[in-house]
Amino acid sequence: MKKILQQRWEKILAGVFASILVFTLIGFFIIPVFIKSMLVKKLSANVQREVLIHRVKFNPYLLSLIVDNLVIKDEDGEIFASLDELFVNLQFSSVFQKALIIKGLHIKQPYIRVVRNGETSFNFSDLIPEKGNNAAPIRFSLHEIKVIDGKVDFWDEVKEVKHTLNNLNVIIPFLSNLPRHVNGEVILNCSALLNDTPIFLTGKSRPFSDTQQVFLQIDIQKLDIPQYSSYLPLSTKVNILSGYMNVKTALSYSQKNGSVSSRELVFSQAFVSLDSLTLKHKEEKEEFVIIPKFSINNTKVDVTDREITIEEIFTENGSLLLKRFANGTFNFQDIVPPVKQPEQPEQSEQPKRPWLLTVREFLVREFTIQGEDLMSSSPVLVTLDQVNLHGSGLTTKSGEKGLASLSLRWNKTGTVSVEGSIGVDPIIAEGKISAANVDISPLHSYVTDAVNLAIAKANVHADGDITFGYGEESSPTMSYRGDISLSDFVSIEKLYKHTFLQWKIFSLLNARIKYNPTEIYIDEVFLDDFSVNLLVHSDGTPDFHVILVQETKKEESLSMDQEKEIPPVYKKFMPPVTIDTINLQNGKIDFIDRYINPGFKSKLEDIKATISGFSSEDTKPAHISLTGRLKGVYPLEITGKIDPFPEKKYADINVVLRGFDLPFLTPYVGRYIGYTIEKGKLYLNLGYTISGNELYGENRIILDRFTLGDKLDSQEAISLPIKSAINFLKDRKGEIRLDFPVKGNIDDPKFKLGKVVLDGMVNLIKKVVTSPLALLGNIFGSGKKLAFLEFDYGSDRIGREDIKKLKDLITALYERPFLRLEIRGGTDQKGDRNALKLRRFTDLLKVQKLKDRAKKGKPAVPLSEVEIYAGEYETYLRKAYKAADFPKSRNVFGFVENIPVQKMEKLLMDHIVITDGDLRLLADRRAIQVKDYILKSKKVEPERIFIVESKIYSRRDDKKGKRSRVQFALR
């Protein structure tokens, strides 16, 4: 029995041993071959690529599988993916749990070759499953997942670059989607080298729970930015020469109640830093961005709530080059190419709320900014160094403001500082600004483009409050309140290289300046120690013509119809401007004229001026007072009122100059009158009024002891008897008093005041030569014509009105002791002849009446006192007719026949003869009467009065008024 039992156990043991042997042989030798064949076949079919496996090992007792040297080749024969060893330790419990239970999953030295061969095309694009594959997920539980020393080669054929991810090590202790594990945490530890840049990724998540919570820690150290420049949104014109980025952040993700619409994605404790960042334009030699250090510290980005909170932004010792090229483009505008506008969302979509950005502290230290403008006529170079910017509590939240301060040094000498608050919604900045010794002379090219002036030196100073913001319709607004000054200003006229304008200090005190709407209110404008050098160059061009840049193309003038079309608001708009006081002191103006030969120099020194009440809103004009000393000796005063604003445009100015020695003007006067000035003094009293567009001027000029010297050879001298004119104009005191008005429209481009005054003086000299007595009438007779006296026909009696003219003439001759008067008696051939004939006819009647008086014993009286009354006219007419010595008709008795009165008058008149001698005698009597009247005044010496040959005027003589006259002439 025992033997039977022993044999039975031996058979059982032999069967077990045989089974174990078969199981072992199949497990260790048959199954690996089957698995290898199946893997090669299945993988090749799935990936449509050649799959090679060197060896497969299987341990049937441990259910462990090892795949050695798996290789998947791409279509081009290159390796697509490979691994040195895949270790999988399957658990028997997988059968009972109906899930894939793996105790260990190790992948050693995996390798993947990724090729990007299009914008969105890769060498694995054909492996991406199509959408819509909703197969039920496989349940699994994986323990001890490891990726050891992995590597990924990324070939970007689009960008023509290669990237390598190596030393990839991943550890996941446990990963399961079994129901009992869905809320369990999955821990991840990952490290790699991306192009030799260490990358660390650690975290934990619940990927299979309803919340799908994920928390990751990302650490990237010293990422070489130039290697990835092709992926950055930079222009192809910009090169990143150097730069390293460090990133350290925590990422958390979850969704509430399993709802995709309630996802939460937050980056927190984010630290991003840039080291040694350098940018350069490909076409430029120098770098335009150099930032040794830039960091964004402790940042939180809530993608769901669209909020970004940055604890600190910090950078220091950076350098920026801002350049404008000759074509008007800027070097920084090419950094980022134009961004395509996103498509407009459909109306049904709810608009997303804007991102909220908060920066608790922003700090820029010791930056340097260089500005270079190559577009202006000459390059503009400005250096801002020691730039320090600090901000705190900066936010885009509506209605909130942060604090900010800025300080910098301008071109090594000037300083600027701003401190205040700043808000984004709405955009507003308020603060105090202080500037000192900011030399703006490097900006002179901007002035040169408008005027030919180079600013050699100009220091700006400011101390005030400034506000900037945006008003309605997103239009910018600005205001400033405080003091502004420009000191040590020196400008050079560029063509001839001489100093044109300079001053010590120009200040706006307590200025209130606004933009949009524009308003200017200033308590005081102060200018001290200023000088202006005015030149007329050798070619006759004055400085102002040289300084003003002439436009190459003239603007077409508007027609009246076009002018009417311009809205009144554009014509009449004038911002409010009020300046309480304008003070000028210690001023000087130097004038040099190199056009004339010899040259002329003069200067106005000790200029002091005050303008008060200067306002575009006040109806009262501003008062102006200016004093100075011409050539440092002769006092000049300018006083009056002025309102230069377009709507009012009013001025009432009086200019007074006393005792200026005229010989200084020889270079000018000699050129135009042909003589030097021996001596003389000039007194000016000029009054000018502007009302609207009309100018009215009164020029009162006194030349005292004005004496000409040697004759000069000048082709521009006027061909008029200047010396005679001077003698004519000199009064008894040796003074020449000129008083002539000017008027014109100041908006008329042809109107030039200097030319009008000069023309007035030339016309005055011409009038002295051509119509001296008319001029004397204007000077002494309130415009009366003194060239002649008119007489009644046949009379030598001076009329009452002519007595007034004679008195004016006597005054003129008295005041002009150098003048001699010629008197020419004259008669009208017809008018005086008829008048003399009528007088002689009347005298015939008077003689008959005198005879009757003698017969009656009455005393004799002068013939001129005899009067013929109407009742006795016919009686004496008949007596005169009978007494006349000419043949008369008689009756049969031989007596003179009585004839009608008219016939007697005619016969008497016909036999009265008035000869030319009678007319000359009448003319002589008239001349003698005038001379006698003048001499009786005892103001004019007899030797200065001459009676010249009388003249009988006929109708052929072109004389205005009566020809029965006495004509005057001055010599």
Notable traits:
alpha+beta; 32-stranded mixed β-sheet; four-stranded mixed β-sheet; single chain; 971 residues; 60s Ribosomal Protein L30, Chain: A; OmpA-like_sf; 47% strand
What is the share of helical residues?
10-25%
Query: What class, by secondary structure content?
Result: alpha+beta
What gyration radius follows from the Cα positions, in whole Å?
58 Å
CATH class of the domain at 788-970, named: Alpha Beta
Structure description:
This protein has 971 residues and is of the alpha+beta class. Among the domains are: 122 residues, no CATH class; 183 residues, OmpA-like domain (60s Ribosomal Protein L30, Chain: A, 2-Layer Sandwich), CATH 3.30.1330. The strands form two sheets. The protein has a 32-stranded mixed β-sheet that branches. Strands 33-36-34-35 form a four-stranded mixed β-sheet. A hairpin with a 5-residue loop joins strand 21 and strand 22. The longest helix is centred in the N-terminal third of the chain and has 46 residues. About 2% of the residues have low confidence.
Please provide a brief summary of the model:
The protein is α+β, with helices and mostly antiparallel strands and 971 residues long.
Q: How is this fold's topology laid out?
A:
Elements: H1 2-47, E1 50-59, E2 64-73, E3 79-90, H2 93-97, E4 100-108, E5 111-116, E6 140-156, E7 161-176, E8 186-194, E9 197-205, E10 214-224, E11 238-255, E12 263-281, E13 287-302, E14 307-316, E15 319-324, E16 356-373, E17 380-395, E18 401-410, E19 414-423, E20 428-439, H3 444-448, E21 453-470, E22 476-493, E23 498-515, E24 519-536, H4 543-547, H5 560-565, H6 568-572, E25 577-593, E26 600-615, E27 622-630, E28 634-643, E29 650-661, H7 666-673, E30 675-691, E31 694-711, H8 722-729, E32 735-745, H9 753-770, H10 772-780, E33 788-790, H11 800-815, E34 821-828, H12 831-855, H13 873-883, H14 901-910, H15 916-936, E35 945-953, E36 965-970
Parallel strand pairs: 4-6, 5-6, 14-16, 15-16, 24-25, 34-35
Antiparallel strand pairs: 1-2, 2-3, 3-4, 3-5, 6-7, 7-8, 8-9, 9-10, 10-11, 11-12, 12-13, 13-14, 13-15, 16-17, 17-18, 18-19, 19-20, 20-21, 21-22, 22-23, 23-24, 25-26, 26-27, 27-28, 28-29, 29-30, 30-31, 31-32, 33-36, 34-36
Keywords: Membrane, Transmembrane, Transmembrane helix
Pfam families: DUF748
InterPro entries: AsmA-related, DUF748, OmpA-like_sf
